[in-house]
Design a protein that fits this description.
Blueprint lengths: L1 E7 H7 L7 H5 L2 H9 L3 H23 L10 E7 L3 E8 L2 E9 L3 E7 L8 E3 L5 E3 L5 E5 L4 E10 L2 E7 L4 H5 L1
Antiparallel strand pairs: 1-5, 2-3, 3-4, 4-5, 6-10, 7-8, 8-9, 9-10
Length: 175
């Protein structure tokens, strides 16, 4: 399964005061707050962790059909980080999701998958033929074959990202 989140940096600066009292405590675990506090660019760390949580939550929601506001139950760890991106994991109620984030000067984009072998099958696609099921979860409809494929849609400010796992990912379907 796949999830993603995109954050428009300019939009987030206009809409969110992440430095206000109680903001970090509401969304992040004490360990995550420490990462934010220690990072040279605290603002980007806030949005990195938030996007990891959002991308992983989209998989969790698809798997469980549970819609809940649980940011502190989505616990992030960062494995690698550079000026161009980061990779890490998000755990939630015993499930682990694997994330990769790309840093761009105007946005950051995180993709989460449920199994590491799925990285080879991640595709970014155009937003067309996308419908939502009764729970509001998006899928890509294929009219001729009457099949559907899980997709993740994210938009924020000036940016929209749609990702899926290629149809060749049969191992994931079998699990």
């Amino acid at each position: 399964m796949i999830g993603n989140d995109v954050i428009d940096i300019l939009q987030s600066r206009q809409e969110s005061n992440w430095q206000r009292k109680g903001f970090l405590e509401k969304l992040f675990t004490p360990e995550e707050q420490l990462l934010i506090d220690r990072d040279l660019n605290s603002e980007m760390m806030v949005w990195l962790l938030w996007s990891m949580k959002e991308a992983a939550y989209k998989i969790y929601n698809r798997q469980t059909k549970i819609r809940a506001y649980i940011p502190q139950k989505l616990v992030c760890t960062i494995d690698t980080q550079s000026t161009s991106g980061a990779s890490g994991k998000v755990s939630c109620f015993g499930r682990v999701y694997y994330t990769k984030t790309i840093f761009h000067k105007e946005y950051l984009h995180t993709i989460a998958v449920s199994h590491p072998y799925q990285w080879a099958t991640v595709l970014e696609i155009k937003k067309k033929n996308i419908l939502k099921n009764e729970q509001g979860i998006p899928f890509l409809a294929s009219a001729p074959s009457k099949t559907s494929q899980n997709v993740s849609v994210s938009n924020h400010g000036r940016f929209e990202k749609v990702v899926c796992l290629s149809a060749l990912n049969t191992r994931a379907s079998a699990l």
